[in-house]
Structure formats: structure tokens, C-alpha cells
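Try it yourself: sequence plus 5'-deoxyadenosine, in.
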Amino acid sequence: MNLHELLHKDELTREEIVYLLSLKNEDDKNLLYTRADEVRQFYCYDEVHLRGIIEISNYCDQNCFYCGLREANLTLTRYRMSPEEVIATAQMITNLGIFTIVLQSGEDHGFDTDLIAYIIYSIKQQTNAAITLSLGERGFDEYRAWKIAGADRYLLKHETANPKLYSLYHNKQKLSDRIEHLKFLKNIGYQIGSGNMIGLPMQTVEDIADDILLCKEFDLDMAAFGPFIPSPNTPYQSKNSGSVELTLNTMAVARLILKNVHIPATTALATLDEDGRIKGLNAGANIIMPDFTPNPYREQYQIYPDRKCLKDDPRKCRSCLQLQLESIGRRVSSSRGDSLKLTPNEIINWSFK
Ligand code: 5AD
Ligand code: SF4
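Structure, out:
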């Protein structure tokens, strides 16, 4: 079978996925990205959804080996935004015409159930934005309370589908627990997002194929694939960054397999490559997640160093992105950008919530 036929197959085997992920020749990669772009256009049209991130706290009780927010990193100045600051930032984001607010933090149990519920409820009262939570693994009762308070989506990356690597990166935590959390979140009605990091120490291309297959099994609403970037003051500080090429190949293959799913061009990709966002949008992505965390906090959310746009004024971000998108024939969506898997009836119900 030639590459053209492979790219048009309905289902791909694990071996075929590994083959596509490993493409290096420029012409072959262009064929892959062009096909991913066609599939993206069929399912998502030319709209790009912006998700406004607010990094509400950089405290974390975990010690993931790759992450600068890990508890053992004592060099970091820690912060927790007040509910009023978070709510005001959410209002600013919706005033810019962005209708998804992502509340993101380390696994910070000091930000307790009620405080988060209060923030969610207040934002839902004052705006018509969807709320995505990205707060790590929390209690099942907390997930339920936040759903009742009005949260719509939960982003919890599985990071790697290889259970041995998972336990290595996460101090013996178990992949099976993370999977249970994702299933629970889906069962109680969250739209769910997950995904991996590309280029983690000891990861193979076969592992990445399994990551994509796991995303398929979860029937995700959003799947994020971003490159690993070594972070100072972590055990992996002197490892190599993930490859931009392999990240783009992963996003493109994921688009072929997962089809009607949201795929972001991640900030980590834009950090490693000046044109990373555009390259990602041309290889299957339909989402951008700009950071709206106010100063002085945004500099202190150091998952990895030199994040793209860290020093820029977030209020200028919307128009800057719009120009970039229009240059490649895409437009900023003015909708909430809910799951592409909802039925027309469900969409009506969601939008009246
Ligand atoms: N490089 C890139 N992404 C990272 N993340 C954590 N550490 C890094 C890193 N060093 C991502 C993980 C995690 C999210 C908080 O950030 O995927 O889910
Ligand atoms: Fe904490 Fe998340 Fe970083 Fe792990 S990846 S250390 S849970 S912020």
C-alpha cells in the first residue's frame, strides 16, 4: 500500500500508526499534514476556537519528574489568586470575545472544593462562557460539586499510556487511577480532554502510538499532544526537548484517527518553534489556548522555561492571534466551541445552561 492509500484508510493498525509517526521525508510529511488538514476541515471547518487560560495557583502537592511546579521545587515563588481576581480575569476574557475559560493549577488541595465551586458559579452567573477545569487529580466528590456549580469540561492529561513509564514519572502513582478519574468525569457529564507529552525520557514511538489509541478508547472531546521541554530544578532538567517534527506528526495522525475531536496547537509547541502555532493549525489542530493569567503571577507559573508570549500583554493577544489565523485562511470562532460529538439536541441543552 502506498502512502496516499494509507492516509485514506478508515482504520489504522498500531504498526501503521508507528510508520506514519516516524515519517521524516519532507514530501511524505507534507502529504500527512495535508491529509490531516482535510480531515480537520471536514469535521471542524475553518473556525479556530480560543480557550482563555487562567493559572489560578502554582501550588502543587505532586512531584512529577518533568514539571517545574513539582512540590520539591523550593526555588519557585508560590501564589494562589483570590476568587475576585479570577472572576475579574474571566470577565476580561469574555469581553474580548473568548467564550471558554480554563481554570488551571497544580494539584492544589489548599484551593478547596467550596472556593473553586464559588468561582465557577460566579463566572457562570456573570458571563456566558464555558468553563474547563484543569486542576489535576482531585476527589470524586469535588468533581461532582464543581459540575453542579456549572463546570462544563475537565482536562486531565494521561501523559503516557505506558504504565511503567507513568509510575516512573509520577513517584509510583498509577496510570489505572488516572484512567478511573477520566472515566468518572465522563460518566458524570463533563466533556473530557486528555493527551500526552512527546519526547519524555525513555518514551518510544510505539508508546506514542498507544497514547493515540488510548485517546480513541476514551472517546475524548479534546486531545492535546505537546512537546516535553526540560525544566530547571527538576530531575529531567538536562534531558533533551521533544521533537517539533514528531509532535506535528502525532497531531496529524491523531486527527486521522480521532476525527471529530478538538486538537490544540499547544503553547509548548509554539515555545520550541517560532511558527509552531501555524504549523500545528496546518497539521490538524483547531484550538489555541492563550494565557490570560495577570501579572505578577504569569511569570511564576513555570511548568517549563521561556513560555511563548509570557512577556506579552494578554489583552493584545486576541487581535494578534486573529491576524495570524487570517493569514492562513482561518477565523476565530465566536461560539463556545463545545464537543464536536454532541448531538444537535445536546448542543441546544448546553447552550441554554
Ligand atoms: N514540558 C512540557 N509540558 C509539560 N507539562 C508539565 N511539564 C512539562 C514540561 N516540562 C504539561 C503536562 C501537564 C501540564 C500541566 O503541563 O502535560 O499535564
Ligand atoms: Fe503538579 Fe501537574 Fe506539574 Fe505534576 S504536571 S507537578 S500535578 S502541576
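One thing you can check immediately is this: The pocket of iron/sulfur cluster (ligand 2) is lined by residues 60, 62, 64, 67, 69-70, 106-107, 136 (CB under 6 Å).
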